[in-house]
Amino acid sequence: MDIHKILEQVKNNEIELKEAEELLKKMPYEDLGFAKLDHHRSLRSGFGEVVYCQGKSNEQLLRIYERLYEQDRNVLGTRASREQYELVKKYFPKVQYDSVSRILSIRSKEQEEYQLIGCIAVCTGGTSDIPVAEEAAQTAEFFGSQVLRIYDVGIAGLHRLLSKLDEIRSANCIIAVAGMEGALGGVIAGLVDKPVIAVPTSIGYGANFGGVSALLTMLNSCAEGLSVVNIDNGFGAGYLATQINRLACNK
Amino acid sequence: MDIHKILEQVKNNEIELKEAEELLKKMPYEDLGFAKLDHHRSLRSGFGEVVYCQGKSNEQLLRIYERLYEQDRNVLGTRASREQYELVKKYFPKVQYDSVSRILSIRSKEQEEYQLIGCIAVCTGGTSDIPVAEEAAQTAEFFGSQVLRIYDVGIAGLHRLLSKLDEIRSANCIIAVAGMEGALGGVIAGLVDKPVIAVPTSIGYGANFGGVSALLTMLNSCAEGLSVVNIDNGFGAGYLATQINRLACNK
Amino acid sequence: MDIHKILEQVKNNEIELKEAEELLKKMPYEDLGFAKLDHHRSLRSGFGEVVYCQGKSNEQLLRIYERLYEQDRNVLGTRASREQYELVKKYFPKVQYDSVSRILSIRSKEQEEYQLIGCIAVCTGGTSDIPVAEEAAQTAEFFGSQVLRIYDVGIAGLHRLLSKLDEIRSANCIIAVAGMEGALGGVIAGLVDKPVIAVPTSIGYGANFGGVSALLTMLNSCAEGLSVVNIDNGFGAGYLATQINRLACNK
Amino acid sequence: MDIHKILEQVKNNEIELKEAEELLKKMPYEDLGFAKLDHHRSLRSGFGEVVYCQGKSNEQLLRIYERLYEQDRNVLGTRASREQYELVKKYFPKVQYDSVSRILSIRSKEQEEYQLIGCIAVCTGGTSDIPVAEEAAQTAEFFGSQVLRIYDVGIAGLHRLLSKLDEIRSANCIIAVAGMEGALGGVIAGLVDKPVIAVPTSIGYGANFGGVSALLTMLNSCAEGLSVVNIDNGFGAGYLATQINRLACNK
Amino acid sequence: MDIHKILEQVKNNEIELKEAEELLKKMPYEDLGFAKLDHHRSLRSGFGEVVYCQGKSNEQLLRIYERLYEQDRNVLGTRASREQYELVKKYFPKVQYDSVSRILSIRSKEQEEYQLIGCIAVCTGGTSDIPVAEEAAQTAEFFGSQVLRIYDVGIAGLHRLLSKLDEIRSANCIIAVAGMEGALGGVIAGLVDKPVIAVPTSIGYGANFGGVSALLTMLNSCAEGLSVVNIDNGFGAGYLATQINRLACNK
Amino acid sequence: MDIHKILEQVKNNEIELKEAEELLKKMPYEDLGFAKLDHHRSLRSGFGEVVYCQGKSNEQLLRIYERLYEQDRNVLGTRASREQYELVKKYFPKVQYDSVSRILSIRSKEQEEYQLIGCIAVCTGGTSDIPVAEEAAQTAEFFGSQVLRIYDVGIAGLHRLLSKLDEIRSANCIIAVAGMEGALGGVIAGLVDKPVIAVPTSIGYGANFGGVSALLTMLNSCAEGLSVVNIDNGFGAGYLATQINRLACNK
Amino acid sequence: MDIHKILEQVKNNEIELKEAEELLKKMPYEDLGFAKLDHHRSLRSGFGEVVYCQGKSNEQLLRIYERLYEQDRNVLGTRASREQYELVKKYFPKVQYDSVSRILSIRSKEQEEYQLIGCIAVCTGGTSDIPVAEEAAQTAEFFGSQVLRIYDVGIAGLHRLLSKLDEIRSANCIIAVAGMEGALGGVIAGLVDKPVIAVPTSIGYGANFGGVSALLTMLNSCAEGLSVVNIDNGFGAGYLATQINRLACNK
Amino acid sequence: MDIHKILEQVKNNEIELKEAEELLKKMPYEDLGFAKLDHHRSLRSGFGEVVYCQGKSNEQLLRIYERLYEQDRNVLGTRASREQYELVKKYFPKVQYDSVSRILSIRSKEQEEYQLIGCIAVCTGGTSDIPVAEEAAQTAEFFGSQVLRIYDVGIAGLHRLLSKLDEIRSANCIIAVAGMEGALGGVIAGLVDKPVIAVPTSIGYGANFGGVSALLTMLNSCAEGLSVVNIDNGFGAGYLATQINRLACNK
């Protein structure tokens, strides 16, 4: 029931003033919430909800998947363990698990037939950055973006990156995933004119401080058009890149 | 001269083999550079070059403005002091200075008549964040984006933010500038479905560590669609937002 | 025996001067200690002692519970493992264990019948913050406060928090438990006019540094009426909230 | 105009449905804001607004004081410089400045006659902590609390603290201000059973890191009933202590 | 008046019970304080009080010197500026100032004739560490220790240190003052078998973090017999070394 | 095929213009890459490729060794586990594993007969630094340098280091491996006039922060001729030392 | 052979000049080493060598004990695991292991009969600090000092500490072991006039950062006569305290 | 007098045994020192001593230059201010000052005619890194190396760096000076096979922490052949590069 209907009922004496007042008092928040869900739905176009699986108890995890199953919708679970996959699979045989990205997803038939749009380039500095890159790439694909994977093009072998430049420049948005020195993001941003989302990874040893070194490198880049998400936050990068890709595709 | 022309000249014996070889050897880098400049030019559409004024010597600064003046182009100078403004003004009377954003710019007539496109919302948590926000806003305007300023809507008075929500949601991209606790970025990202660029500021005292506290808050936000630039980096946010805004406007 | 009695005995020659001197020399500290215990007892009204179980050896733990059992009093054990619960249970079958809060408590019949007073609201940003929140809530209940639990109202979904605002405002004191960006404390403090105790949790990954990010957010909040306890220190928050709640109830 | 009146007007056809709808749509936020202001007013009982003066431009500062003067209300300015005092004084001769606490306040006649209630003890470790302590104390007094000052009772001379214990215990809330090692808060919390608000100060040198050392000491205290505010945040402590003192006085 | 006398008076009815009770209640703390002052006096043998001058207001500083002058005692002021010296000199012409160590002292005739005892070696890594070393050395001398100065023997020129080894080994306690890498303390401790007090200094640049680098080096030394005081804390080292030197001299 | 040949073919009409254009466009990067590989080959003189084994999946590891085996080249694997050794050994029985340095290498017959040149001294502070030192030493040997091992000469027993000084001075380059306080690098650099590469190790406890303490000591050394690599980066030091040793041997 | 003998042989032509030169060149370092060992022996009076067991391989550990056994001397092993104890016991049945302090020692009959001298007070803040305190205490006892244990006297229950003050003051040197807030060292140093060695422990959680919080508290203490050793470095404190105790006993 | 001469005198009875013994006892350290000076002299071939001017008092500075002038040698002063230049110039008119590198040098005629050898490439990321680069370059030139300056080739405009690659590869050693993200060192090390010395600079703002960000980037680089010196330590890099350049030139 929306504001307009309540006011009509008031006008038509179909409702008590006090009751209308109560309804209206609660409404803004519900409305707000509803709007929030609404635009989210419009964003995701029926792709479903996101669950951060790590640290969830078995019971919590199952309850979430159950509720979503009843609503016949899609679900994207991140940071899932193999154990969680096996647990969920017992009840929801459709669930799919990728052991590299650790994404545990259910897709509706409608989503599987969805036509991927635009282009997001996902680059990594090394092979060890691939798990984070795959979390980003598969998140973007789950939400409907086409993804171009360009892995192991770190600056220690710059020629590999340069030979892929034309492809990278063709994307609407670039995700640069790198650990250790983390210079990849800045190098790419200096070579393209599209938004670059840098994802530091916790790969490395010694004074890399679990990714802080790469994070600082990225924040301090003097290349224009670069922004940063949290260490290892492939999901966040994939989600944000999808927002930008959709804007570019006018969706 | 591009590769094609050189090869034609070789074929037609209009050029020595050795000379052609020399030209080609240097070309890729020049090409690369040229491409870079090229797409930059397409990005900026004749708006000009960017100069980080802080720390530049008087001589360096003047030489840069001189070179740009000769090319009859525009220039965006950031972090300029009033002294630098007065210095440059002696030689280039057209130069404009904004003492809040510390932007020192020259605009060509063509640029001044340019029609601003799309919409970027620039929000701040408090009034002390305004200098950084203005650097972002004026950068975006310089590069052709329409800007909506929504200042002093920090989370200590949440109702002010909520009352502006419709306006914020209408933008293609939101820049959230905040110091101290820095929660503004996450709150906005939780309420809209457009990319949010969070800019931590060095405003605050005590355990804020020159903006690190706000930076960490923003990096750790669990709201989706949020990325972060360096502390006080208003320019970077304005530039990146323009890239996104242009994508959304298909420019 | 107090000072007054000793002096009377001196006056009445019922005690040697030297003996009185010895008694008095030790007294201030014992008195101090006694006073301390005394007001603690008055604070806790027979609810018992607190034990930080983590790291205690089995022998140490049993000795403490034994001493308390003999005195027929209550005991609140925090950070207890299931193994410690099973150990203690063998000897003290009345002991109760909550695996979420990890609280291991014995309550006397008198305490169980105690009427809970006032109101403390315990809020969390996410579901992963619940263990810390429960430590706070159950500590407050153990010491006699009524607790209102409002979980999973983090700022990424602000409407959920706003819809609970009236309830939160009705409490004498609010405990805000949040990890990751940790903005919940500041948001609540900006919406109510009661003391808010913020508890950062070590939930998160990347640049959250085991809760330091949330801690800094909370310390730097510009909302008035907010103070902070150590990361994951649910017990400390519950204890402090009880002190404030009692003041408000004039107990 | 509140919800009730709008609905009556709708019922009585005194207002267009569309107009009522518009009014109601904006209302919740205004209501929220209003409520906020309202409870703040009830908290402050006509004592006025708070301004963080540091970093405010002369123009900004004057505009704020002007607006408040017109409303004939009180104002508490913190971190004001002597220059700001002299500026404001020109236009508002009633303004008062304390060079130790750096508080710049205007009090209405009504406020000056207000009867201070309850008791807050403000303690410091050394004499150099006094400016922060005075910010706390004068904030508390401004908002109507009686304050007991107990300065220079740091743990290097424990006997001074112990000799004041009875007085400290008589307060509803204690503010412990200390720099360097910052142990004062924990020592006091171990000796009293009232809420203790610890304020680390940036006093010290070497590895004190501008107050971080004292901050960490306070956060890690194992004494019960202790919480912490930001480094040098005397205002925050005074405000929070007033909230607790009012609860204890049932105001 | 001590406990024994009070009890006698009680016994002899020379004092009211209530009054005796009051006296006894306050006594322990006064006793404690007195004892503290007492042993301090025995430590310092009439050498006087210590004042940390930095940050003291002119008024505070003068009041302290005045009180001490009246008592005809000695005073050791540390971290004094030349301005403070000139201020104090106006009122107390006997005051002496050393611009290197920044010590501002008044010595009684009795102290000036005191025979220095034992031996403390004060070593520095470089010439820039000398101000901190002099604070240590002059503190030790003020409190009655003989001091051996061995400056500029840092590990970059190890032979200089080795050539002084016999002298260093003859001291009861060694103070090793060093900035930058701070390895001096560990090197000396590896060569002698007396307590070594390491003082990190804030000398250096780059990643020395105001002395933290030297501090960490010293804390992590694997040489036995080494302990550390705060960065630049020459006074603390000189005081502690005097305690050890006195123990060795049985004073 | 190089630029010259392509141009000749163009001139002689032996190739289509378009095809030549394509070849040339890709060439610079391939050239660049090739050049890189080329000089690397000249550096390594047929010694092979380097693999960072840690974190590689079994499949990845085998594929790399397989590719190298086919090319009949040598391979240096660092940070290999015993499990990885056993895996690789199944397929490549020639592989050798050193459990101290964790180096997993295959050497061609040609490499095994190679005459080691020059001299690199590898020193350690303690016995626990030996694994990192061996990674450095064996890397240097793998790439053709003669290595002099001087272990356990830390500054806590300076005489051991001094007694080896002549040998150390005879090397072209010194690698100083040390944890805890990490002063070894500076001490050696102060005693020799050859480049010293300092390797901090993560050995230690308490405030050594996983090697950061030693790292800072080394960075802040005032001895000339010292540079630093990442914590525990024995491979990097061994590789760099080989570059210097080869320069000194004019290879 | 010492310098004197060599010179005599030169004088008497019993040795070649060249040979004498060689012997003399090496001598200073050997001499130095010898002196070092010598004074160590005089320090330890036959108590033996110290081994840091943690991280030693079984082979290394056994070789060390074997060498020491042959010399019929004593050995103090720190940070030993139970496994290491069982390993060593097989070969050296006399070895003793304390599972709290993790000290693994062999004492000669002569040492066991040694009369302990002087007095060192070892205090802890809580029961969890006892392992570090025992490492300190048993180290001091191993090297011949009498030790007074005063445990669990942290500042949260100040009266317990005060009631032990006379005993503490009777010691020549005090070791204060404390984690969490770490204020114990400063409190004791403020109450006694003997050297206090503060040992921060890694006990605690949240923002204690593995003992850094306690370390900073101790470094920043404004109490005089306090120095600090590394986190958890009980051995270092026990060794240093013994040096001071010996000085006080003139041994 | 050296060992050989003393022994001869002993043999010839030209010296007392006791006196010879005394001379020999002190000699090793003097010898060591002498050797040190000796090889330093051979390294520097009459180029002179190095003075770190910053923080030196006027008196200290003059005394050093005076001593060196008397010896008719060269001197390299680093981090000199213009004031120091003007002071020194009064007494030593030959002194030269470069206001960019802040080097204050005196060169003998012999040194000025010295033929520079080999080649060191000094590269910078931006123009603001030039002062540090010039300190490195001029240090290297002072000590006899030929220097190739390649400035402003940071990774944000990679083509500029690539176009200079041949020149960079021709050097014996490369110094890479960069602030902000600091990726230059790793990029160059990935493109050349000579030792690269990375110098982080304190240029930048926000989360660059005075150069720590660039330092960490460089330490974590996965490119081979890279080592790092302290932030802004141009002198250290120039000195070390000279050592390597000399090795390559066999000098």
What is the secondary structure topology, with strand pairs?
Eight copies of one chain form a homooctamer.
Chain A: H1 3-11, H2 17-44, E1 49-52, H3 58-70, E2 75-78, H4 82-91, E3 96-98, E4 103-106, H5 109-112, E5 117-124, H6 130-142, E6 145-150, H7 158-162, H8 165-169, E7 173-178, H9 184-189, E8 196-200, H10 212-219, E9 226-228, H11 234-248
Parallel strand pairs in A: 1-2, 5-6, 5-7, 7-8, 8-9
Antiparallel strand pairs in A: 2-4, 3-4
Helix pairs in contact in A: 1-2, 3-4, 6-11
Which fold name is given in CATH as the topology of the largest domain in chain A?
A: Rossmann fold
Q: Radius of gyration of chain A, Cα only, in angstroms?
A: 22 Å
Biggest interface and which pair forms it?
Answer: A-B, 39 and 38 residues
CA-based shape of chain A:
globular
- Described by its quaternary structure, the protein is homooctamer
The major sheet of chain A is characterized as: 5 strands, parallel
What CATH architecture of the largest domain in chain A do you see? 3-Layer(aba) Sandwich
Strand tally of chain A, please?
9
Helix content bin of chain A: 40-55%
**Count of folded domains of chain A:** 2
Q: Poorly predicted ranges of chain A (pLDDT <50, ≥5 residues)?
A: 26-47
Strand order of the largest sheet of chain A: 6-5-7-8-9
Distance between the termini of chain A: 29 Å
* Category by helix and strand content of chain A: alpha/beta
Number of helices of chain A: 11
SSE arrangement of chain A, N to C: HHEHEHEEHEHEHHEHEHEH
What is the CATH top level name of the largest domain in chain A? Answer: Alpha Beta
Q: pLDDT average of chain A, as an integer?
A: 82
Pfam families (chains A, B, C, D, E, F, G, H): AIRC
Domain PurE (chains A, B, C, D, E, F, G, H): 118-250
InterPro entries (chains A, B, C, D, E, F, G, H): P2CMN_synthase_LarB, PurE_dom
GO molecular function (chains A, B, C, D, E, F, G, H): hydrolase activity
